[in-house]
Design a protein that fits this description.
Helix content is 35%, strand content 17%. With 147 residues, the protein is α/β, with parallel strands linked by helices. The chain has one domain: Aldolase class I (TIM Barrel). The strands form two sheets. The chain has a four-stranded parallel sheet with strand order 1-2-3-6. A two-stranded antiparallel ribbon has the order 4-5. α2 runs parallel beside α3. It starts with 9 loop residues before the first strand and ends with a helix. Belongs to the NADH:flavin oxidoreductase/NADH oxidase family.
Length: 147
Amino acid sequence: MLITNGFDGVEIHGAHGYLIEQFLKDEVNDRTDQYGGSIENRCRFALEIVEATANEIGAHRVGIRLSPFANYNESGDSNPEALGLYMAESLNKYGILYSHMVEPRMKTAGEKCYTPHSLLPMRKAFSGTFLVAGGYGRDDGNKLSCG
């Protein structure tokens, strides 16, 4: 219905502690079925949504936002880099338009904080367009783009 009403696409919101991210993160996902436990199982729900959306409107109209390193709404993960890499690699299968990942660099609105985490491994793993967010200024963006 979105596409027939003139929208160009959809960004699946799998970040910031909302429902999809609650499946992804091991600090909040305590399920014991096929959606809990291993990283593959925890990512299953998000990937099923990506697949269904891509099948419905076309992969070229689908993006996803993820925040593997963030701990929004107490939804952290014990190994956020592995989570981010797994999702980046798995998303390649669907040929979606973009992956939009959040690096937790904002302490408060307008105030950056130091973080040891980097999205560069995820950028290298994802073959499509890769968007980033998280307190980047011009110098930060230029440094990241140079690897």
